[in-house]
Design goal:
Layout lengths: L1 E4 L5 H13 L3 E6 L4 E6 L7 H5 L4 E5 L19 E3 L2 E3 L5 E5 L6 H13 L4 E3 L17 H14 L3 E5 L13 E4 L7 H7 L6 E4 L6 H13 L5 E5 L17 H8 L4 E3 L1 H5 L2 H13 L4 E5 L17 H17 L1
Parallel strand pairs: 7-8, 7-14, 8-9, 9-10, 10-11, 11-12, 12-13, 13-14
Antiparallel strand pairs: 1-3, 1-4, 2-3, 5-6
Helix pairs in contact: 3-4, 5-6, 9-10
Length: about 325
């Protein structure tokens, strides 16, 4: 249920209403926008009389939400959420690019790439310490050592870091990680999502390769239900029957998600296409469609990469993509 308040409402009146609603066993979320204050109610709202609420002097409108995702709903929070870490803002008109290797392989590899992507304008360093792979025989990442190398690269460049978590038991290892990524395969790992809801770190939540937009938002809801509202949604392509690209990039998810939710939305053209030569055009298209940022894989020697070399850009190619994306953003 959404309760929109009149602009003349005082803090004392709002606090009185909040206390009354909490006494009814409801969880109350107050969103103060530039022009209006909105109260979102989560719980058994059948106990609340719509007419009684509507009749209060400070209430402008009462709306019941039919969608199962409440906290992630834009009706619940009309203004865009801006996720911030280490001075980098994502959402609400702020555009951020996360770039780096699919997997952390060595100190020299990671630090060189980190310096290169920073020079080209990247605002966050990405790199996989834990790598979920389809084959058990493929490189699985450096794990804890990989996180330490990411922190070294952060100290060198000043770039905040984002890396993927796979197991709730590993949360303590991510204490110094700036953004925790939930990969496509773990989008519906609900026990992991519940634990991340207890943290105070930004969460990058990727859409599963066979999941709907509604299911993505419900996964975000799991995290938000635990108290963590710092979530960045990531569209990384969905599975189809065509074999020319790794996945099908659903660019329509950008306007749909912006309509449904207040959470920022970024695009990963690397995983979506699986082919490095397609990344530039898809990155430009994502910027034109209104994405709040990009996640792009960059490797100093893609042909020798231990993970996803065919979709990785060289630093020079990444620099070219960044210049092209900036031109698109200037136009729109």
């Amino acid at each position: 249920m959404i309760v929109a308040l009149k602009s003349t409402s005082t803090n004392e009146q709002i606090a009185h209403l909040e206390n009354w609603l909490k006494s009814r066993g409801l969880t109350v979320h107050i969103s103060r926008g530039e022009y209006q204050t909105v109260i979102g109610l989560v719980g058994d709202t059948s106990k609340i009389d719509d007419d009684l609420l509507s009749g209060l002097d400070i209430v402008e409108k009462v709306t019941r939400i039919s969608e199962p995702f409440k906290s992630a709903n834009r009706k619940f929070h009309p203004d865009d959420t801006v996720v911030e870490t280490c001075g980098v803002k994502i959402g609400g008109g702020n555009f951020a690019v996360m770039a780096g290797p699919c997997s952390v392989e060595s100190r020299e590899q990671l630090c060189n790439i980190a310096e290169d992507v920073k020079k080209s304008g990247a605002s966050v360093l990405r790199g996989g310490a834990f790598k979920p792979r389809t084959s058990p025989y493929d490189f699985q990442g450096l794990k804890a050592e990989g996180i330490e190398l990411l922190l070294e690269a952060k100290a060198l460049t000043g770039l905040p870091i984002v890396t993927e978590i796979m197991n709730p038991a590993h949360i303590d290892m991510f204490e110094n990680v700036d953004i925790i990524q939930v990969g496509a395969r773990n989008m519906q790992n609900f026990e992991l999502l519940k634990e991340l809801g207890k943290t105070n770190k930004p969460i990058l939540l990727k859409r599963g390769l066979a999941n709907t937009i509604k299911e993505l938002l419900m996964s975000a809801e799991y995290i938000m239900a635990g108290g963590n509202e710092q979530i960045i949604l990531c569209e990384r392509g969905i599975r189809s029957f065509d074999g020319y690209t790794r996945n099908v990039l659903d660019l329509s998810a950008i306007p749909v998600l912006h309509e449904l939710t207040h959470l920022p939305v970024i695009i990963d053209p690397s995983h979506a296409t699986g082919v490095s030569r397609y990344v530039k055009s898809m990155a430009m298209a994502a910027a034109a469609a209104g994405a709040d940022g990009l996640m792009i894989e960059v490797h100093n020697n893609p042909s020798a990469a231990l993970c996803d070399g065919p979709q990785s850009l060289t630093p020079a190619q990444f620099d070219d993509v960044m210049k092209a994306v900036e031109k698109i953003r200037m136009v729109i």
